[in-house]
TrEMBL record:
Family: Belongs to the connexin family.
Subcellular location: Cell junction, Gap junction; Cell membrane
Main location class: other
Source species: Callaeas wilsoni
The name this protein goes by in its record: Gap junction protein
Gene: Gjb7
Length: 219
């Protein structure tokens, strides 16, 4: 899979972000996207082939694997990366709208089309709320699908067509567990960064609005 589109998206968003937003972009790009491409994708590459049960009953391994891994960790992680980055498109589209509007009217309508203020501020805040919500949704989804943030070495399966309870072994469980913890930690870090940026912007523009009203009253 080519991740160039996501890299370009993050680079574009970085131009309009606050300092905290730039840290978020760096975390997503360096500690999530690059780790996924360089290492994690290869670890889960042959997870189905390396899933072994102590019985050769036709179909038993397949149904057991599907039961314990209804969605591949790595594919769900890829979906998470794409989904939590998508709300940033709202900001890019809004800036593009401002620029096209200036071209259409052939005059300067904004001091800086990429400056976070007015309508763009609302769009930016909505994107932060969406990103935070999606991160939480995926963490809950991971927890529900796999019964916690863990990868057992051994699972016991008694689903038909398995004739009885069989032992099934997961390949490289320790290595996968490390990357799973890393995934959860980076997701939590991104949530903290999004909430910090949201609080910062609300506080900053609330104070700014209060000071403007105060100055008008004094005048």
């Amino acid at each position: 899979m080519s991740w160039a589109f996501l890299r370009d998206l993050l680079s574009g968003v970085n131009s309009y972000s606050t300092g905290i937003g730039r840290i978020w972009v760096a975390v997503v790009f360096m500690f999530r996207l690059l780790v996924y491409v360089a290492a994690a994708e290869n670890i889960w590459k042959h997870e189905h082939d390396e899933f072994e049960c102590n019985i050769k009953q036709p179909g038993c391994e397949n149904v057991c694997f599907d039961h314990f891994f209804p969605v591949s960790h790595i594919r769900l992680w890829a979906l998470q990366l794409i989904t939590v980055s998508t709300p940033s498109l709202l900001v890019v589209f809004h800036v593009a709208y401002r620029e096209n509007r200036e071209k259409h009217h052939n005059q300067k309508l904004y001091k800086n089309p990429g400056k976070i203020d007015g309508g763009l501020l609302c769009t930016y805040l909505i994107s932060l709320i969406l990103k935070t919500g999606l991160e939480i949704v995926f963490l809950v989804l991971f927890y529900k699908l796999y019964n916690g943030f863990k990868i057992p070495r051994l699972v016991k399966c008694d689903i038909k067509p398995c004739p009885n309870t069989v032992d099934c072994y997961i390949s490289k469980p320790t290595e996968k567990m490390i990357f799973l913890y890393f995934l959860v930690a980076t997701s939590c870090l991104c949530i903290v960064l999004n909430l910090s940026e949201l609080s910062y912007l609300i506080f900053k523009y609330s104070i700014k609005g209060y000071l403007k009203r105060h100055v008008k009253k004094q005048q």
